[in-house]
Amino acid sequence: MHCELTVTLTYTAHKLTDYSSGTLITAESEAKTAFDEDWKSIETGTPIEELRVRWLGRENGIVNKQLPDLWLKSASKKERPEVGKAINRLKAYVQDHFASGEDLEPGAREIVRAFQAVDISLPGIRRPIGAEHPVLRASRDMCAVFQRMGYSIAEGPVVETDYYNFEALNFPPNHPARDTQDTLFIAGQNSKPQRERLLLRTHTSPVQIRTMEKLPPPIRIVIPGVVHRNDPPDASHSPMFHQIEGLAVDTNITFGDLKGTLDHAMKEFFGSNVKTSFRPSFFPFTEPSAELFISCIICGGSGKRDSDPCRPCKQTGWIEILGCGMVDPNVFEFVKDNGYDPKKVSGFAFGMGADRIAMLKYGVDDLQLFFHGDVRFLEQWA
Ligand code: DAH
Question: SS3 for 104?
Answer without folding.
Answer: coil
